[in-house]
From TrEMBL:
GO MF annotation terms: sodium-independent organic anion transmembrane transporter activity
Chain segments annotated as transmembrane: 66-85, 105-125, 137-156
Every Kazal-like domain range: 173-220
UniProt-listed Pfam families: OATP
UniProt name for this protein: Solute carrier organic anion transporter family member
InterPro entries: Kazal_dom (IPR002350), Kazal_dom_sf (IPR036058), MFS_trans_sf (IPR036259), OATP (IPR004156)
Protein family according to the UniProt entry: Belongs to the organo anion transporter (TC 2.A.60) family.
UniProt subcellular location: Cell membrane
Leader peptide range in chain numbering: 1-19
Membrane topology (UniProt): Multi-pass membrane protein
One Gene Ontology CC term in the entry: basolateral plasma membrane
Length: 220
């Protein structure tokens, strides 16, 4: 809060109009006054109506470029947000990482590479000024690469994952085994742990039959 107050105070010191912009605005006013000595009356405002709104909305719908771009953005975010939200849990279960390590990987990687991509793309666009057709083709190419990368995650993972939790005939997971039958793990929080050989994943330490906890390198 204190840091925000300091920066907001510094931003409040900036003028409403920069000096160069004020000079350009004044020159435009003088040129307009020279061209027309008579005072231009503003155009009367047309009354708002529901018919005009329908016409405008119809024109927007009939614009294929705008509508396809909007649909692409909506479908992209609807498909990408669940993946991004559950990515830490995916890394935690598939690659046997702790919750903190999974969140650190996804958060740091996402923020760093997003910032680099935004800055680099802004620099390239402002310097080379590519055409709209090239920009659209680049967006399609990057989107296709992103989709292929996400699909490839279905084929990546650890072998023998969760083999200590076999499936029942109805498709549900059966976490009960001989070593945890008397541990009463029905309401234990989901927190995957690995066996000592690193090949087996258990739903929690209780399901693994653990009775004690040993901290190694700040991890249980």
């Amino acid at each position: 809060g204190f840091v925000l107050f300091i920066f907001s105070t510094l931003l409040a010191l900036f003028p409403k109009t920069l000096p160069r912009a004020a000079v350009r605005k004044e020159l435009l006013k003088r040129q307009a006054s020279k061209v027309s000595s008579t005072k231009m009356e503003p155009d009367p405002e047309l009354p708002t109506s529901f018919k005009d709104m329908v016409k405008t909305f119809r024109r927007i719908i009939q614009n294929p470029t705008l509508m396809l771009n909007n649909f692409a953005a909506v479908f992209y975010f609807l498909g990408y947000l669940p993946y991004w939200i559950f990515l830490p849990k995916y890394i935690e279960t598939q690659y046997r990482q702790s919750a903190s390590a999974s969140s650190l990987i996804t958060g740091s990687a996402g923020l760093v590479f997003s910032a680099i991509g935004i800055l680099l793309s802004g620099l390239i666009i402002s310097k080379y000024k590519p055409r709209a057709r090239y920009m659209a083709a680049w967006n399609v190419l990057v989107g296709a690469i992103s989709v292929m990368g996400i699909i490839s995650y279905a084929y990546l993972g650890c072998t023998e994952n969760d083999n200590r939790a076999p499936l029942l005939p109805n498709g549900e997971m059966n976490p009960v085994s001989e070593c945890n039958a008397r541990c009463h793990c029905d309401y234990v929080k989901y927190n995957p742990v690995c066996s000592q050989d690193g090949r087996t994943t258990f739903i929690s330490a209780c399901h693994a039959g653990c009775r004690t906890v040993k901290n190694i390198n700040d991890t249980s």
